[in-house]
Amino acid sequence: MKKNTVATLIMLFLAFFHAACSATPARVNSTLVIPDAGAATLAQPDVVLLGLPDRAPQDASSHDSQPVLAVGTGANGEMVTPLSTGARAPYNGVLLNGPAVARISVEFRSQQDRCLIEQNRAVSLVEARYVADTASLRLAADTQRRTDQVVINGLDADISRLNRLLETQQREASGPHVLEGLAWASGGLVLGALIVGGVVLATTPRP
Length: 207
Hints:
By secondary structure, this protein is mostly helical. It starts with a helix and ends with a helix. 63% of the residues lie in helices and 0% in strands. It has a domain of 80 residues. The relative contact order is 0.06.
């Protein structure tokens, strides 16, 4: 019974430990890479693009609320009220007399003019922003190209210098070494003389 209780406690502890470990957020180890001091770093110009202009929120109440002329305002008691499409007339009688037609015509034309002005303004603003963004991108690309060319020229100069140094070292290594040859020849002569002298002394009978 005690063994079963101990085993149950151990399994509960392992289950709790596993749940706690799985709930713990994983830590991501990031490694900071530091470039060499001699490495060339290309400059990245920051370009701020304007993009499309934000659309201004339109107030729906300004379109729906139209001034209503009270009865008795016109010469014949006309009353002007806004109507939705398909709505019934608010009163009986002549819906459009001469002054009403003239007013509606004038308001329609003025509304067309206002829409045309707003449309031209929006199109001009978009074109201006596109022109500004294009100029910014061209300037950034030209700056990046010049910076890259400067870095490439520096790397070419370093490569040429290293090639000249390598050629000089190879030429020095493959050239004739007179002093080194003389030293080896002198050492060989001395060693040969010592060997010959030793042989002569060894073979000469002593009195």
